[in-house]
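Researcher: We're teaching a course module on how sequence relates to structure. For the next exercise, students receive a sequence and then see the predicted structure as tokens, so they can try to spot secondary structure elements on their own. Here is the exercise chain.
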Amino acid sequence: MPNKPSIKLGLIQHAAPVGATREQNLAKAVAMIRDAASQGAQLIATQELFTASYFPQVQDESRFDLAEEIPGPTSTTLCALAKELGVEITASLFEKRAPGVYHNTSLMIGHTGQIVGQYRKMHIPDDPRFYEKYYFTPGDAPAPAPGLAPATASHQVNTRPNAEPKRSEDSATRAQPHGFAVQHMRHATTGMLVCWDQWFPEAARLTAMRGAEILFYPTAIGWHKEEADDENQRQRESWQIIQRSHAIANGVFVAAINRVGTEDDLTFWGSSFVVDPGGQVIAQASADKEEVLIAECDLSLIEQTRRGWPFLRDRRVDAYTGLLQRMIDRD
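Model: And here is the predicted structure for the students to work with:
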């Protein structure tokens, strides 16, 4: 098999108690990032909206005050930390884009301390205790090429057509955070998606098609206090199954980073994990403890797996026009 590098990931799973300040949550995450780096992690990922408790449980106008501009206090702290430690960090923030326009945003920060990628959550849920449509504007979709639905290459991060991905940030200019992009980092090409995105195979597919080797899903998902135990377990199994399926269908690694602890009516189920391109869970955190999860990802498995399961090769792209419709009515 062709030689490909490996990469060591660090996933940061922790609680964000109701009443804790942004500074307290950020300090905890910084300490855990330092821990991950000391264990050799080269790319370290936070959970969704890690600097606050999960505020979309209620619709409360005052909670918009939790949002930050980018660059802002949290991103500046993380950029300095990445440079100090010589690591890459992907972090999930509540972004204030403009007055009245807010996003659930993931950043990719390079080892030189620069923001090299930005993704605004595309799929926004609205369920009891997950009132995200009240807070978040969906990310901007890329403009389609003439006659085509998919985004053009101009919307990718650090894209160099007809060339192998370059593992450096020599052109670390922040890209426009449109649609499903990738970031060519030192050790892997990454794709950032967020929580509710994890239930949509189209998002994983489009990001993988752009060359992502690892899909990151920062997450805030848990059980409602009135749900039965058997329903709770079913939900957690479904959450893991769908992401394992993305890994298999696309021949990529998948990393899901969830929080723990009880916040108001929700108990978050932790269980952060990393899956290889064959769908095998190679590392998993506990359901109820704060921890740093380390996973070694052998990127040569992508080529090996895709040779055996050539799903991307065998796609019938000429037959999928119906996917551009909301539903297909009966004849």
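Model: If you want an answer key for the exercise: The first strand starts at residue 6 and ends at 13. The domain at 6-140+166-324 is CATH 3.60.110.10 (Nitrilase/N-carbamoyl-D-aminoacid amidohydrolase).
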